[in-house]
Design brief:
The protein is α/β, with parallel strands linked by helices and 383 residues long. It is built from 13 helices and 21 strands. β6 and β7 form a beta hairpin. α3 crosses α5. The protein is globular, with a radius of gyration of 24 Å. Bound molecules: cytidine-5'-triphosphate.
Length: 383
């Protein structure tokens, strides 16, 4: 189905298979749908050239491994080349997509997750599996993404690349982490410490970057906002520590991160398991707060060459000076400064007024714009 859909979308397709794959599908089927020779045996004399598996690396613009078994993912992560496909994978230097498909326990095993992270760090794009009925009869995560979804992601990626190559401002084809919304820090079973952030700014940036052909990982605190774009992978979290865990685990595989969340700086040291009751003596209640980890500063320390990091700052006084010092302290490339002193800007509004400060000292003060327009300005920082 995948080959057929790609051909229908205008691609020229050649298939390379492992011996195990031929237990599921025949060479004849693949040759018929692709209208091309199928490559299987590393040393086969039946091929026109004995080095055909290597010449394929120059022929294709992109290589899609579908379905990608735990075995082939492990080989790719370790650089093992012991058959036609793994040899081709090791020598291929252009866009590489991997569509994992396996049993849930295998998918969730630490070794497989480690291998997937290695591939992400190597620039391989993982088209995440879905939940559903698996080949082994069980139901759970590990089912290969639907062929239509794989084709959609490939087309979105190549559209993004085309935008990038045309020199236009719409860079795409990257994996970008975004944090958005507030965090809730639990006091007891029914109460929390939070803030008035709605997530509108972060969601607008996510939509903008996804529409430019990027894969967006949106880690969001509690919000009523919905995400529609298929290029956005949404991860819902509640507390700062959950946001920290999600952001630090995705950042290594991303080319950029934009942290717009209003993270609670403090959380109650203890969360009461039940609802706290009123005391009779009218003494009030003291909650001891401890500091949350600073996600942005942590990513600033993790940042590798080539990765970009953009933070937000919400200031009420000494705005420029404070924002500038946050930019340096947290090792950012840009900081987007919101001022609470500007009417129409900040929490809950559909408009915002920001000043963007660059690491090189550049300073751009915007006018009051819709959050959608501000999102475009922020997305342009990654071009
Ligand atoms: N931020 C974060 N983790 C935190 C606190 C803040 O990732 N625990 C991020 C926000 O998402 C934002 C930036 O840091 O991008 C600045 O947030 P802000 O609240 O303005 O600054 P703080 O670093 O918390 O400093 P202060 O509260 O002292 O102004």
């Amino acid at each position: 189905m995948l080959v057929r859909l790609l051909v229908k979308a205008g691609a020229e397709v050649r298939c390379a298979v492992t011996e195990h794959a031929l237990q599921f599908v025949t060479t004849l089927t693949l040759e018929t749908v692709s209208n091309n020779t199928v490559y299987c045996d590393l040393f086969s004399r039946a091929n026109k050239h004995s080095t055909e598996h290597i010449s394929l690396k120059d022929w294709g613009d992109m290589l899609v491994v579908a379905p990608a078994s735990a075995n082939v993912i492990g080989k790719m992560a370790c650089g093992i080349a012991d058959d036609a496909l793994s040899t081709l994978l090791l020598s291929f230097r252009k866009s590489l997509f991997v569509c994992p498909a396996m049993n849930t326990q295998m998918l969730e095993s630490p070794a497989l997750q480690r291998n997937l992270n290695t591939l992400r760090n190597d620039g391989v794009r993982i088209i995440e599996s879905e939940s559903g009925e698996l080949a082994c009869g069980a139901t759970g995560n590990g089912r290969m993404a639907e062929p239509e979804e794989i084709v959609r992601q490939i087309i979105r990626y190549s559209d993004g690349q085309a935008g990038e190559n045309s020199g236009g401002p719409k860079a795409g084809g990257r994996r970008i982490l975004i944090t958005a919304g507030p965090t809730y820090e639990r006091i007891d079973a029914v109460r929390f410490i939070g803030n008035f952030s709605t997530g509108k700014m972060g969601f607008a940036i996510a939509e903008e970057l996804a529409s430019r052909g990027n894969e967006v990982i949106l880690v969001t605190g509690p919000t009523h906002l919905a995400t529609a774009h298929p290029g956005i992978k949404r991860i819902d979290v509640e507390s700062a520590r959950e946001m920290y865990d999600a952001a630090t685990s995705y950042f290594p595989s991303c080319q950029a991160a934009i942290l717009s969340a209003a993270v609670a700086d403090f959380r109650p040291e203890h969360t009461a398991p039940n609802k706290l009751k009123k005391q009779n003596d009218h003494d009030g209640l003291t909650i001891h707060l401890v500091q949350n980890p600073d996600i942005l500063a942590t990513l600033g320390k993790m940042k590798r060459d080539g990765q970009r990091l953009i933070g937000f700052a919400l200031e009420t006084d000494n705005e420029l000076q404070n924002a500038q010092s946050k930019l340096e302290r947290k090792n950012l490339d840009f900081i987007v400064l919101n001022s609470l002193n500007d009417p129409g800007a900040g929490f809950g509004h559909d408009t915002n007024k920001v000043t963007i400060i660059g690491r090189d000292g550049t300073l751009k003060t915007g006018t009051l714009k819709t959050k959608k327009e501000v999102a475009k300005d922020v997305a342009d920082l990654l071009t």
